[in-house]
Design brief:
Structural class: mainly alpha
Distance between the termini: 56 Å
CATH architecture of one domain: Orthogonal Bundle
Largest sheet: none
CATH class of one domain: Mainly Alpha
Helix content: over 70%
Oligomer: single chain
Shape: globular
Length: 119
């Protein structure tokens, strides 16, 4: 396989695809908007309570994990729905596992928020 030369225009184009994916997630996925609201509230509370740098790192990690999980879940669901609309056990399994990853990330975010803002 022949290696491609580095192309700045191709790198810029790849960023456009990534930003398009983020925009699509926020516009089309209802749960992503709920996560965005939660992230906004966490950031606002962090500013109000003047949390420490280490607390900001934990809050940031929680927010990023939730969004990464939601994005991967949405991508897996989109692929599965494109492949078939039939109810198939392996498609259900893939979608359920992906959804579970979001639940785990959101649970982690809730624990981080409780530790930072309540305890």
């Amino acid at each position: 396989m022949k290696k491609k030369k580095f192309s700045l225009s191709e790198r810029i184009r790849s960023f456009r695809f990534a930003f398009s994916g983020i925009k699509t997630l926020i516009i089309e996925e209802h749960n992503a908007r709920i996560h965005l609201l939660g992230a906004t509230v966490a950031i606002a509370l962090g500013i109000i309570f003047q949390i420490s740098n280490s607390e900001w790192l934990w809050i940031s990690l929680a927010i990023v994990l939730v969004f990464i999980s939601e994005m991967l879940n949405s991508a897996i669901e989109a692929i599965c729905d494109e492949v078939t609309e039939e109810r198939k056990p392996m498609i259900k399994k893939a979608k359920d596992i992906a959804a579970g990853s979001v639940l785990i990330a959101a649970g982690f975010a809730l624990i981080v928020a409780l530790v930072v803002f309540v305890l």
